[in-house]
Amino acid sequence: MEIKAIRGFNDVLPAEIGKWQFVEKTAREVFEGFGFSEIRIPILERTELFSRGIGEATDIVEKEMYTFTDRSGTSLTLRPEATASMARAYLEHKMYSFDPVAKLYCFGPMFRHERPQKGRYRQFYQIDAEIFGVANPIADAEVILMLIHFLKRVGLENLELEINSLGCRECRPRYREELKRFLADRAFHLCQDCQRRLQSNPLRIFDCKVEACKEAISEAPKVTDFICPECQVHFDRVKEYLGMAGLSYLLNPRMVRGLDYYTRTAFEVVSYQLGSQNAVTGGGRYDNLFQEIGELDIPGIGFAIGIERLISLLPGEKEFVKYPHVFVAASGGGTQKRAYELANQLHLDGIRAEADYEGKSLKSQMRRADKLKARYVLILGEEELNRGRAVLRNMGDKSQEEIPLQDIVDILKDKVKQRGKETF
Ligand code: ATP
Ligand code: MG
């Protein structure tokens, strides 16, 4: 029987990879411009990192983690998100001893055992960026500005930035109690999950996608009416700094985010093109995460972008696909060896050259060049080769010219550049 990939685990095929590379390259440029450095963290971590960091009563920890015991009996988990690992790395390598402020980003796969559907997979990729060590709301505005700038740079439109404040350890318990009280006599309307959440983590009910639960909670008190004066000042500053950076936003008091560690600022960017899985990215401040996983009290703020969802919003794929610059076509006799030599030379100069491997006829090589969408075909004829020349055919306008082979690299570089876009 043919072996297939696991449900919810996708291949990213060469036809799509141009978009991924474009997104990653743009993220690197933008983030590094904002002073962030890349970090690479393991895909497997000890389970406690996530159960303590993300919180026991979250959907991720309760039902979405890929957890198993390895051969030495240690409980390990495929990372469901990157922030906890980045915080662990910051502590483990005492990055704060050089400078308390660390601005880090990473790319990579995350794993969550959710029901696969459009925009929701079991292995999916995120771009993460975090600032550790800054309590000042300037950092909140800075990461949000960077995020919006990045999304615009990749070409997304129709985006809405939503922000909220979730309060802190001091004021959120009061809100939780208020919410519980409000929901107590509506509990029988709630789905089973939410009835459980009502006890363990009532804020999570805001995230429930079940209509009856949405209805039950629609008139609930707002978290922002319960935050303490310090949280209020922080939130006001965030709004002020966002305004100074020219960003507009929507206040959404019902946006709570799925991870327990968030405090104060929470934000999401939604796209109205995405339907029900509409969040492209989300993030927030997490001033308690470090205490959960280590001994130091370090504030943090950051975001995670879902790459698949982001890519599903990008315009058509044509310009992202890398077609061959040139197909080197041999026409029998000694020309095949010469084609091999020339293709090597072009490859070493970074020109995407293809050639025939099977001694096919010139006609069939031309057909293949056409199918591969090669921009030029270099036709090697015995007679021209003897004079150090070959025919270069432009597959776009079908024009042909004879060129000296000694200048082939320069000629092709020139021609490809003239067509714009391309960089070598
Ligand atoms: P959602 O409400 O859609 O479940 P979330 O709150 O669980 O999102 P985060 O944990 O904040 O999401 O992750 C940030 C981003 O990662 C999301 O905005 C989304 O783009 C993406 N993402 C999350 N879960 C998945 C998934 N299972 N498949 C694909 N992308 C995902
Ligand atoms: Mg989720």
Model description:
With 424 residues, the chain is of the alpha+beta class. The protein is 37% helix and 21% strand. The strands form 3 sheets. Strands 1-5-6-11-10-9-7-8 form an 8-stranded mixed beta sheet. The protein has a 5-stranded mixed beta sheet with strand order 13-12-14-15-16, sandwiched between helices. The chain has a 3-stranded antiparallel beta sheet with strand order 2-4-3. β12 (326-330), α12 and β13 (353-355) form a beta-alpha-beta unit. α1 runs antiparallel to α5 and α5 (137-153) packs parallel to α9 (229-244). The longest helix has 20 residues, at 14-33. The protein is elongated and about 90 Å long. The two termini are 44 Å apart.
- Main sheet properties: 8 strands, mixed
Strand content: 15-25%
Work out the radius of gyration: 28 Å
What distance separates the N and C termini? Answer: 44 Å
Please bin the fraction of helical residues.
25-40%
Shape: elongated
Summarize it:
With 424 residues, the protein is α+β, with helices and mostly antiparallel strands.
Index terms:
424 residues; 8-stranded mixed β-sheet; 15 helices; 21% strand; binds adenosine-5'-triphosphate; binds magnesium ion
Record the SSE blueprint.
Blueprint: H1 14-33, E1 37-38, E2 44-46, H2 47-54, H3 59-64, E3 66-69, E4 75-78, H4 83-92, E5 102-111, E6 123-132, H5 137-153, E7 159-165, H6 172-184, H7 192-200, H8 211-217, H9 229-244, E8 250-251, E9 263-271, E10 279-285, H10 289-293, E11 300-306, H11 307-312, E12 326-330, H12 335-348, E13 353-355, H13 362-371, E14 376-380, H14 382-386, E15 389-394, E16 400-404, H15 408-418
Helix pairs in contact: 1-5, 5-9
The structure holds adenosine-5'-triphosphate and magnesium ion.
The site of adenosine-5'-triphosphate has 19 residues, from strand 6, strand 10, strand 11 and helix 11.
